[in-house]
Design brief:
Two copies of one chain form a homodimer. Chain A is an alpha/beta fold. The first copy, chain A, has three domains: about 40 residues; about 250 residues, Alpha/Beta hydrolase fold, catalytic domain (Rossmann fold, 3-Layer(aba) Sandwich); about 60 residues, no CATH class. Chain A has twelve helices and ten strands. In chain A, the strands form two sheets. The first copy, chain A, has an eight-stranded mixed β-sheet with strand order 1-2-4-3-7-8-9-10, sandwiched between helices. Chain A has a two-stranded antiparallel sheet with strand order 5-6. In chain A, helix 3 links the parallel strand 3 and strand 4. In chain A, helix 6 packs parallel to helix 7 and helix 7 runs parallel beside helix 8. The longest helix of chain A has 28 residues. In chain A, about 40% of the residues are buried. Chains A and B meet through helix 2, strand 1, helix 3 and helix 9 of A and helix 2, strand 1, helix 3 and helix 9 of B.
Chain lengths: ~375, ~375
């Protein structure tokens, strides 16, 4: 009776069934739509929200992985990590430059993981000391009152962020740091602090005027004698001197260059470049490109030469590893390409020689057959 | 009875209901998962598959939209479009460079839509004539047998692709084309063909050796006298001359430079740049950056000067519009920033003057109040 009562009414199971099937169909449709839309998107990376106990706040982190990171045809490799300050600005172009320079057999650098660190309180994090300054346009305004947090930020990067990245991704241990303007000031601070040490620094238009040039005093003390473990440092300066006035920003970078020129510390390789055609805003992209080329100078292999000198491949990587104080080896992708190239171009002995190196370095993968 | 019979069995509506609810819950969960995953991804663009009746095949097209494209706080604007050949290689870095150079009030160029065209048969599409060549490493191999499709590819771009982009997105009509190597050969062909005309061309390391330098003959005929409507052309060359041999690729670009130097055609602005530190592979990224800076030279506004000369803002855009033969005006974002800047820095008269221009250009939006 109870059942009968509902026949034909809203409680009828068949009506329910139809309603539910409509919902199921709709949900299926929506799922497929979402799936289809997701497939159409061009995805270059992923974001994480990381709680920092040191900074006592959530930080947004962007991560771009190398194109071969999930290539199932090769042995899972580990990669250097490039940490980029001002992630919301700089992550996109650093990722594009790294992908560009690490592509193909003429790659100028290894594939890398790019990590962008977005800002919350930029002045607080990037400045090594607590200082302030009157606004140039309005002397009643005091700028930078919440400053001097670089030590904390450095601890966050060195202890929390790098641990997270090293646990979440396959990292090789080779680390780079890149910053512009206040980010360049922080990168200089991080370099001079010594710990945690990175292997390379990209320092673009650093705000070295900060707090009576406190970082220049530090540089004069630390640069000549500390052991930087063969760190490679690229410093860039824009052509934006304000005419007719003393430009503290411009002059302080020139003074830093002079300090770098005056020291002779074999544990450190510094390159300074002046950009005649760039201003403070346009500098960081071309300087990122040239800076990475400087840091990885010597990485590129002239693989056609290997046909006449089989050892030149490993010699080239040995020389670069010595220069950077870190072990680099040919990627599996590159070895695969070289073997195929020699096979296809009538050089079976060269192909066999490279294949031998391939099998030594990547014993787990089936290498290209001869 | 018929109903009773099914109670407790597989046909029981309550069992059905439970089963369906499980499916519903699962689907809801999956939808949410997909949504959550999508939110974590960093998306820089979208892909389309476009069927070309001219080429008789599907083409993959990548599209990156300006960051303010969907900004609901401003009047929907239309944007120039940069068409990038070798989309699978070049789309990512062109997008990053365009986003970088068009950012903020010191923007060196307008925000743009970037369209990447992926390859299917690169040699066929990029080459203006049917020709072939023996492989340098193996004289029994004949290269480039399926060539000479540039006219078709040009028709695809000019008729099918631009129509699709113009119908799917808000485009201003200002169009640029960028290509490297064979893509540079095609861009040269497209420029010399005249129709459909683009406003600017980025031609990097073009393969002008193609078919006995057929494009150089064309250039000698067309460049001196055709009307290019003030097109801006940037030609870049890498430092990769093969030593000790006649390098046809290298020499043909030098010959093109000499032709460009020898003509005096006021409807065309050509800039050639040689890259001492770049090879054929590394050239296109820095040349893309410098090429865009050349094409948009004069676009950047020194907005602080406006305080002393209110007309300088519109004068600056007028001069650039005249130079490029196309109407450019300040973006709403920029005007908003300038009004706020003058308000905040004790310059109410300058703020009011810029606000007036704002209201004339963007009457539909509520501008910043004074």
């Amino acid at each position: 009776m109870g059942l009968k009562k509902t026949v034909g009414s809203d409680q009828d199971p068949t009506v329910w069934f139809q309603k539910i099937m409509k919902i199921v169909t709709l949900l299926l449709f929506l799922s497929l739509q979402l799936f289809a839309r997701a497939q159409e998107k061009i995805v270059t990376g992923e974001q994480h929200c990381l709680y920092s106990s040191v900074l006592k706040e959530e930080r947004r982190i962007r991560v771009a992985l190398p194109r071969n990171y999930s290539n199932s045809k090769i042995t899972p490799a580990s990669y250097p990590v490039l940490y980029v300050l001002d992630g919301e600005m700089a992550f996109e172009y650093y990722t594009a430059i790294v992908n560009f320079l690490s592509k193909g057999v003429y790659a100028s650098m290894p594939e890398m993981i790019v990590v962008g660190i977005d800002n919350t309180d930029r002045t607080r994090d990037m400045t090594p000391t607590r200082a302030s300054k009157r606004a140039p346009d309005d002397s009643t305004k005091i700028l930078f009152q919440n400053s001097g947090g670089a030590e904390n930020f450095s601890t966050f990067i060195g202890q929390e962020l790098t641990r997270f990245i090293d646990s979440a991704y396959r990292t090789s241990g080779f680390k780079l740091l890149a910053g512009h303007s206040f980010g360049g000031l922080f990168s200089t601070y991080h370099l001079l602090r010594g710990q945690p040490a990175f292997h390379a620094y990209l320092i673009h238009a650093p705000s070295l005027w900060w707090d009576h040039q406190v970082m220049l005093s530090q540089a004069r003390q630390t640069l000549p004698k500390a052991n930087f473990g063969r760190a490679r440092v690229y410093v860039s300066q824009a052509n934006n001197k304000e005419k007719g006035v003393f430009d503290a920003h411009f002059e302080s970078i020139k003074m830093f260059k002079n300090i770098c020129d005056s020291i002779n510390n074999p544990s450190l390789a510094i390159r300074y470049e002046f950009y005649e055609n760039e201003d403070h805003g346009t500098l960081p992209l071309p300087a990122a490109y040239n800076g990475l080329k400087f840091i990885f100078d010597g990485y590129q292999v002239d693989f056609k030469k290997i046909a006449n000198n089989y050892a030149s491949l490993s010699e080239s990587y040995s020389a670069f590893s010595k220069k950077t104080n870190f072990h680099f080896q040919p990627s599996e992708y590159m070895l695969h390409f070289i073997v195929e190239y020699f096979k296809d171009n009538g050089k079976p002995a060269a192909a066999a020689a490279v294949l031998k190196q391939y099998q030594q370095l990547y014993p787990k993968t089936a290498p290209p057959t001869l």
